[in-house]
Design a protein that fits this description.
The complex is a heterodimer.
Chain A (H helix, E strand, L loop, with lengths): L8 E4 L5 E6 L10 E6 L6 E4 L13 E6 L2 E6 L8 E9 L4 E4 L3 E5 L1
Parallel strand pairs in A: 1-9
Antiparallel strand pairs in A: 2-6, 3-4, 3-7, 5-6, 7-8, 7-9
Chain B lengths: L2 E5 L3 E2 L5 E8 L9 E7 L6 E7 L4 E3 L7 E6 L4 E6 L8 E8 L5 E4 L3 E5 L2
The chains are: A mainly beta, B mainly beta.
Chain lengths: ~110, ~120
């Protein structure tokens, strides 16, 4: 069981907007930055959002992140078929002294 | 251009020790603030953090695996080595190494190496 909680799956139609939630606690999300990763089938994860809401160079601005208290969200607008992937949230955990991941959310573009 | 690549055996027997090497370029592990982490992913399952080593040799381990893991670095060779003892079939996974950016974000990943534990 993962320390951070994500929905196992979400789905939405092309060109629509979808959000993926990530719930944690005061020792991780509540006190540290949240990072999001996209993992395309058969590929290594890719950093999508860091420090809660910052986009690495080259990442589309259709992706955005937000955080409130001990929860965070990833939003993807203008959905495209190429966005079908697994998405993971992660954060440093002060109690465990390691990075903790969510269980991942599989996005299906209908 | 930062790149990382994992290397090691693809098949190990139960109870054996796994040794994986992460060879990187484009950064130095002697530079303040730099870190390299190891993460694994069993087939069809989620990512799992394993270990992290910083430029100053500070090391962090997954609490559940701490007794089995050792992470070291060789700055002159641009390599980070992870050893995991007493391997079990449940340790079958793709093992990744990654460069640590600010806020514990992993901004560059290796391609991963699949390790199968089987007799």
């Amino acid at each position: 069981q993962s320390v951070l909680t994500q929905p196992p799956s979400v789905s939405e139609a092309p060109r629509q907007r979808v959000t993926i939630s990530c719930s944690g606690s005061s020792s991780n999300i509540g006190n540290n930055a949240v990072n999001w990763y996209q993992q395309l089938p058969g590929k290594a994860p890719k950093l999508l959002i860091y420090y809660d809401d910052l986009l690495p160079s080259g990442v589309s601005d259709r992706f955005s992140g937000s955080k409130s208290g001990t929860s965070a969200s990833l939003a993807i607008s203008g959905l495209q078929s190429e966005d079908e992937a697994d998405y993971y949230c992660a954060a440093w955990d002060d109690r465990l002294n390691v990075v903790v991941f969510g269980g991942g959310t599989k996005l299906t573009v209908l | 251009q930062i790149t990382l690549k994992e290397s090691g055996p693809t098949l190990v027997k139960p109870t054996q020790t796994l040794t994986l090497t992460c060879t990187f370029s484009g950064f130095s592990l002697s530079t303040s603030g730099v870190g390299v982490g190891w993460i694994r992913q069993p087939p069809g399952k989620a990512l799992e953090w394993l270990a992290l080593i910083y430029w100053n040799d500070d090391k962090r381990y997954s609490p559940s695996l701490k007794s089995r893991l050792t992470i070291t670095k060789d700055t002159s060779k641009n390599q980070v080595v992870l050893t995991m003892t007493n391997m079990d079939p449940v340790d079958t996974a793709t093992y990744y190494c990654a460069h640590l950016h600010i806020a514990a974000a992993l901004d560059y990943w290796g391609q991963g190496t699949l390790v199968t534990v089987s007799s």
